[in-house]
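Task 17 of the worksheet. Students: predict the tertiary structure of the chain below and write it out as structure tokens. Keep your answer in the requested format; marks are given for formatting as well as content.
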Amino acid sequence: MLATQTPAPGQPQFGDDDPGIAYNRVFFGLLRVQRSLMPEIEKSLRELGIPDPIWYEILYAVEQAGENGVQMLSLQDRLAIPQYALSRHVARMERAGLIRRESVPGAGRGQNLHLTEMSVGLQNRVWQVYVARIQAAIGPHMTTDEAYDLVRYLNRLYG
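Model answer:
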């Protein structure tokens, strides 16, 4: 919790009659942070030829997978997006020359994704956009210890 928002001992946090409302506050707080950061990030990404932020996550996963590529089904689970949405993004990225698909032998319609020459290193340039925007927006409002505490709490939501 941010030190500036910690109430005095024994005082109610926000005056909610139902303490369960705290979970709603977390959810809507996260949405507001995301909505406040994304317009500038999206604008900067478009300048790099990335029309949707999910493209960064796809590029990153494909790059991490190395020479073997990453299976579409694995990527769908990792990104928590529906198959049709992932397929649409992959098709657009393929048309843009950023990734290529390769059929997986014996896997029916299974496909692996691979980086193209055009996309090698692009993930690092995109990452710099995120680093600059996120650190400028969040850094002045919390310490690194508070940020790590928050990450630990948020990671429990996906455990």
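Marker's comment: The helical segments are 21-47, 54-65, 72-79, 83-95, 122-138, 144-157. Residues 24 and 30 are 10 Å apart (CA to CA).
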